[in-house]
Every structure is written in C-alpha cells, then in structure tokens.
Amino acid sequence: MTPQDEVVLMARIAEAAERYEDMADFMKERVEMGGVLSKEERDMFSAAFKHAMSSRRNATRIAKAICTAKEQEGNQAQADLATNYRSKMEAQLRGVCEKALSTLEQSLIPGVGGDAEAKVFYLKMRGDYYRYLSENLEPSARAEQASKAEQAYSTGIAEAEAALSDVHPTRLGLILNFSVFKHEVLGDTQGAIGMAHAVLAAATPDKLNALDKDALQDSEMTLSLLQDNLHLWVERPGAGAAGAREESDASA
C-alpha cells in the first residue's frame, strides 16, 4: 500500500466514523502528496469539506433565526447569547471554507492539466465556497466574496461548454449551484430562472440516453433539483435561502 493509499484509507475510516474534519484533513494531505486525484478521491475531497461545512452552515442559520425571534420578543439577553453562538459558528465556517479554497487554488486547479471534467468540478467547488463565505457577511462586505464566486462559476461554465455535453452530470451540478447563487446571493431570480429553463430545455432524451448508467442517474437527479428550484422561484419568487436545492441536497 502506497502512502497515498494509506491516507485515503484513513479518510474512509474518518468518514465512516462521521469525523468529517479529520476526513478533510486526510484528503488535504493526499492532495499535498502530489499527483492527480482519481475521480473517487475527488469526490471524497468534496464530500469531506461539504460535511464539515454543512453542520456549521445550518447552525449559523438557526442561531440567526433564534436571534431575530428573541429580538422581536424583546428578550435582548437571549438574543445576545444566540448572536455569540452564531459568531462562533461563523468563525468555524470561515476556517473550513478557507482551508478548502486554499487547497483548490494552490494545488488542485493549477495541477488539473487537460482534464476538463476535473477542472469544472474544482471551479464549481471554488464558486461554492466563496458563496458560503458571502452568505453570512453584511451586504457592504459581501461583494468581494460574491465576485470571486461568480468568477469561478462563470469560468467553469465556459470550460464546461467547451468540453462537456449539455447533460454531463458535472456540468449540470455546476449550473444548478450557479443558479442558486444567482437567486440567493445576487438576488437575480430571473437570471436563475432563465438558466434553469435553458438547461432543462437542452436535456433532451437522446442526449440523456447517450450517458452511461451512473452518469444518467446523477444527471436525472440534478435535473430534478433544477426543476424543483424552478417551480419554487416561479411560484414563490421571494423565497429565501432555505428553500432552494443545491447539488449536495441530492444525497442529503
């Protein structure tokens, strides 16, 4: 067993134990060993950071809602406690996002070579983690992170359009999350709706039938999430961040 295999095995053990921060550290170590990640390793890297981030993201949203509720009740002492907890979760969330972004920007994206699918995958991740950073910032401080997210998503779209089919699961996952970003962060619901409409119209049966079984399953699941979001945005255009579905929701 090579040192790389040992680290990946440790990441699998950490995943089984639901120790996602440890899993993320092991996968970061695997990246630092050099060499191109396999598709399985790439998925493990993504899953590790997503799980490590998600619990803190949810905790931040819940603490914010409780703070607002307590302020409306006139209970400032409890609102302050919720605010303090939210600040703690936000700091931890920033740490996870910054660790993922540094690995993506310093190692994975520069070292991707000619693998278009991997490049689109990593650019989507880059956009996602800048989006997560932007979510908890005040509007005056949000612009820089949102701009970096939009740049990553847009670059990924250009790469996908040049190299991947309209219904490739990695391309669809990027478009799904970019459309959520447009709705939630940019407030461009019409842009999100237009993007979803275009993707769904392009996903013709002949293109889907050309995919292998696993890719077809992934693509159909992502298209279903896009359809759910489209319905939400058309029927409830003012729906907040908690309503929209993004790529990870498929397995949530």
Explain the overall architecture:
The chain is mainly alpha-helical. The chain has helices at residues 3-16, 20-32, 39-73, 76-108, 116-135, 139-163, 169-184, 189-202, 205-209, 213-235. The longest helix has 35 residues, at 39-73. The chain is globular, with a radius of gyration of 19 Å.
Give keywords.
mainly alpha
Q: How large is the count of helical segments?
A: 10
Principal-axis shape: globular
Unreliable sequence segments: none
For the report, how would you describe the main beta sheet?
A: none
Order of helices and strands: HHHHHHHHHH
Q: Distance between termini?
A: 33 Å
What amount of the residues lies in strands? under 5%
Short summary:
By secondary structure, this protein is mainly α. The chain has 10 helices and no strands.
Show the helix and strand layout:
Blueprint: H1 3-16, H2 20-32, H3 39-73, H4 76-108, H5 116-135, H6 139-163, H7 169-184, H8 189-202, H9 205-209, H10 213-235
